Every structure is written in C-alpha cells, then in structure tokens.
Fold this sequence. Notes:
Elements: H1 8-20, H2 22-30, E1 41-46, E2 51-56, E3 59-60, H3 62-66, H4 71-74, E4 78-83, E5 92-95, H5 96-112, E6 120-124, H6 129-141, E7 144-147, H7 154-164, E8 168-172, E9 174-177, E10 180-183, H8 185-192, E11 200-204, E12 218-220, H9 221-225, E13 237-238, E14 242-248, E15 256-261, H10 262-277, E16 284-287, H11 294-306, E17 310-314, H12 325-333, E18 337-340, H13 342-349, E19 366-370, H14 376-386, E20 393-396, E21 430-433, E22 445-451, E23 461-462, H15 466-474, E24 481-489, E25 495-500, E26 504-507, E27 510-513, H16 514-521, E28 527-537, E29 541-550, H17 557-571, E30 580-583, H18 597-605, H19 621-629
Parallel strand pairs: 4-17, 6-7, 6-8, 8-11, 11-12, 16-17, 16-18, 18-19, 19-20, 29-30
Antiparallel strand pairs: 1-2, 3-13, 4-5, 9-10, 14-15, 15-23, 21-22, 22-24, 24-25, 26-27, 28-29
Helix pairs in contact: 1-2, 5-6, 7-8, 10-11, 13-14
The structure holds 5'-O-[(S)-butoxy(hydroxy)phosphoryl]adenosine.
5'-O-[(S)-butoxy(hydroxy)phosphoryl]adenosine binds next to helix 11, strand 20, strand 24 and strand 25.
Amino acid sequence: MSNRIHTLGGYIHEYQKSVLEPENFWSRVADSFYWRKRWDKVVDWNFDEPKVQWFVNAKLNITENILDRHLFTMGDKPAIIWEPNEPDEPNRILTYKELHREVCKFSNVLKKNGIEKGDRVIIYMPMVPEAAVAMLACARVGAIHSVVFAGFSAQSLADRINDCQAKMVLTSDGNFRGKKSIPVKAVVDEALAQTDTIQNVICFKRTGTDVTMESGRDLWWHEEMQGISEENKAEEMDSEDMLFILYTSGSTGKPKGVVHTCGGYMVYTQYTFNNVFQYSSDDVYWCTADVGWITGHSYIVYGPLLAGATTIMFEGVPTYPNPGRFWAIVDKYKVNQFYTAPTAIRALEAFGTEPIEPYKLDSLKVLGTVGEPINEEAWHWYHDHIGKGKCPIVDTWWQTETGGILISPIPGVTPTKPAYATLPLPGIQPIIVDSEGNELKGNSVQGNLCIKFPWPSMLRTTYGDHERCKNTYFSNYKGLYFTGDGVKRDEDGYYRILGRVDDVINVSGHRMGTAEVENAINEHPKVIESAVVGYPHDIKGQGIYAYVICDLANRSEDNLKNEIKETVSKIIGPIAKPEKIQIVPGLPKTRSGKIMRRILRKVAEGDTSSLGDTSTLLNPEVVDEIIKGAQ
Ligand code: WT7
C-alpha cells in the first residue's frame, strides 16, 4: 500500500484529516510498514524543550523495510542503477536481492570490526553504490551514520569526526568527477592526524590511485568482504533511536549535527517519495544530488528504496563529457522522474538548447527541483525544453532539519505555479509570522515561515547540544519551529519561498554560514577582520562576497585574494570559496560595534541608491570608500 493521493479531492480530504486527526492519519500511513513491535502512541511532543517522539515505543529496523520486505515481491528488480563518471565505463545494477546481500555482508564487516549499536560511523565516499551500502549497513547494525560530502576539507572532516566522536571512517581511495580524479583517502589521513577516536578506516577501491594504508587501522573494503557471511539479522531499533547525523551550516559558529531517528524518518520519506514523485512500480527515478546532502539521504537512498523503487546514482557532473550528459542518461535508462537543483538547470540553460537536441526525453513524467528558490525563467526553460510542456514541475521546499519535503505540488493532483512551492503536503501545518511572532492570517501576506505541528521526520536535536537546537529553531517564536526562510502566501494561498532571513547564504543549493566563512578567512595571517554576505549570482543563485580588512605589507592585492580563497578552500572546502573579495579600509559598524551587513549586502548587489541613514554609524566615512572600491 503506497498511501498515494490521486486526485485534488483526495488531497483536500487527506490534508484535512491530517490536521484534524493527525494520530489517525499517521497511524494509517505507518501501518503499511513492517514493525517488530507496534507503537503505544503515535506522537508525543512539545516545542518548548523541544521533545518530539513519533511511534512511541515501536520497534523496527529501517533496512528490513527496504530489503527483507522487498525480497520476495521484487527481489530481481533493480534497486540501484549506477552510472559512472565515464559514459563508456560499464554501469552497475544492483537488484533488491543483490543489495540485500551486499548490505548483510557489509553489516557483518562492521560488526567484525567492533561496530556496535549506537556507535558513530563517518561515511566520506564518492557517488558509488557502496556509499548506499555503507549507509544501510550502519542502519542495519544500529550504528549512527554521518555522511560527510566528499568535497569537504580535511579540517571540516576532522571537526565532524570530533564532534560526534566517531569510531570508524568509510571512504574510498579516490573520486572521479568530470575530468578530475580527486584524492579522498589522503584527505582522510590528514583529518585523522587531528582526531583520536577512529579505530578503523575501511577503504573502497575506486580510482586505483596510490594510497597509504596504516597497518592495524586501515582495511580494504574488498578484502573485508571476502569470505564474510551473507546472513545478517537486523538489529532491533527503537523508533526514536538515532538513524543518522547530518552536519549543516547555520548562522553562527560551527556546523551542527542534525539528528534524525528511525521510525518517523522512515514513514515520512517513503510517504513523500510516493506522493511527490507519483512513482509507479516500473518507473525509473533519478535524483542528481550527492549522498553527502539530505536530498541524497532522503530521495536517493531511503525514500525510493523504502518504496521499492529503482533509483539511479550518478557519479559524475552535468557537463562531462558535455552538457548533454544528463539528457543522455535520461534516454539511456528511460528515466520517468527527474529531480535536480535550480543551479544545475541554470548552468545547463546557459549552454542553450543544442545539447538537448540529440535526445528524446520522452520517458519523463515528473520534473523536480530542490535546494533554493527557482526563478521563473529557469522554471519555464525546464518545463518547456526538458519536460516538453507535458511534465508537471514539483518545486519541493524542505531542509536538512525537516528530513523530507514539506511544501510541494503533487504532480497531476494539485496545481503548479512557476517559482512557487505551492501547497503543504498532508501533515504539514505552515504558519507565517511577522518579526514579533504575530501570525499573519489569510492570503496575500509575507513574513517568516514557521511550522506549528510536528511531522514524523523532523529533527529531534542537534548532536551533543540540545540547547543549540532549542535556540536555533524553537526560541525565536514560542511554540513554533522556525525555518529561517522568508515566505509569501499569495492571493490563491500558494506558498513562495523567498530565501533565508538569517545569516545563511545558499550557494548552488549548498548552505553556508557567513560566520563560518568569516572564521575561515580570518585564519589567514594577514587578515585583520572580515564580513561576508551573499549577492545574486546568475547560476549559483547566490555568490559569496567577502569584505576583508588586511595588512597589505609585502603582498599584492591579487596574491592576497588568491591566498584567502585557498585558505577558505583548505579550511572548509572549495564550495565555500568567496566569488568576490574586496579589500576594504574598514567595515561599517554601529556604535555598539555590530557590523551593518545590510549596507554590505546592498553594495554587493550593486544597489547603492538606498543605503538608508548611515550617519549614525561609528565610521560613516568608510561606506563611501567601500562603494568606490566595490566590484
Ligand atoms: C534551505 C535548506 C532540502 C534539501 C536541499 C537543501 C532552501 C530548499 C527550496 C525550494 C526555495 C529552497 C531554503 C531552505 N530551499 N528548497 N524549493 N525553494 N528555497 O537543504 O542545505 O538544509 O537547505 O534551502 O532556504 O531553508 P539545506
């Protein structure tokens, strides 16, 4: 039973039911899963502590719902289709039976190497099926995985290992991305020099590049898998046991470990996958995200596999060997649902329609976007040239913290509207508030987006620091979960996400905290102070603009700027490199010493007409200098 909604009337009915009788609604959805023990209560919650529990006291293992449950009904159906970076390298297809076998074997490898229920395991791997096997094997033995995007630096990796006190790292020798081959194991080695909790590293051989293996610590994936038993009984987990930690950036300090738990995450990701993509049993579904982000967790691995879908994992990049690669893959596998990011759409749009021409794209039924607001132009391009005007676009709004999609059209069921995420899914109760926290009722209103009732896959805490979870999400507006996004509800009641209202920048759909980037810039010995803001970027959505005060002695400005970029790349990773750096004599500050980012944002946007009153600043003269030096 898929709990799929088929009609607009069905949506309205389900939505109303989910608000009026949430326990009945979710208990019916959850009934379609395999639980070792049923729950005593559907939901128990308060947003003050906050404390949220779903399917209280139920027992399960999510991998039994992904693998064991599907063995007899669809054992020979492809679960994962892997498309390699090079178009002429053989692909790999793992059926549900084969995936089950691999996961059982690797679960035994984890156990053999001392991994027990509750241990934290870091996964720092490229887009290969083994990354999914690694996640599922952790889930099967009850270990808590934390996938770290393989583009992050050694420093970022070490910070995450230390934060969650991980016991093991699963990685690969290297990573193929377009023309590049990236060392991965070497980054792990560098990170491990700054950590002391890791007992073993298991390394999957992908590129064949030379690596150093530390004896007693480092093991080869293929050697460990040799001769290991294929029998593995899944660990029994409580519904509220942690399933995984995923680090994400916020407006202050270091990234925080968002915690998701087993039962609610399972129910919500499958439910939303089925509805938002309207997956039917013979469809081929493809999400182009990386497993290092929440999209990869919920809508490449968990959601689709729970639903018994065929999910594609693509190792490469959209422009290699040419900008027609996505469309070649769509035709090759007759992809029915295609899910990508606005930044990818805009990047491909920049090549014109010629790269699309050789392809039919006639298998496509649903197109999805996620990660940042999609502008109307990109929406139409996607709709007309990729969907040929016949595929509904699901603009899915959600967050690492929400675990699954909260606001989105249901294709063929509810209407779409360019640049709008449109309507909340059943179970989701959005509310718009002004800066004082007053609810803005009715239509044609704009404010901050909050959610007033829990949903099964919401975050439970931030790892090791519950206070931070409370302060970040539950303290701005009493009794509400605050998303950090601005939103408009139009005259028809449709939601349009306007972007972050906090100090978070969204670069190509990746979240970056301004404070985090500033801290990295300030590591450069010549930097005295810096301030980072986002500015509109044609392809990336937002770019990073850094204002830096520094000591220019013995350095040319250009050299220094390059060094600063390298510093950021080294400390966080290449994705956080500022696009633009302006060396400034000072930063505009209030009399209490607070940086006036509003002014810096305006200058970065190239709009200096409405800076407002700057005379009350501590140093008004600096504003003119900044405008003069702006790029
Ligand atoms: C932030 C969350 C959700 C997976 C990928 C990003 C922005 C996300 C949309 C959308 C407008 C969107 C929001 C949100 N965002 N989807 N459809 N329209 N904005 O996850 O890294 O946790 O970032 O991405 O600003 O708060 P994330």
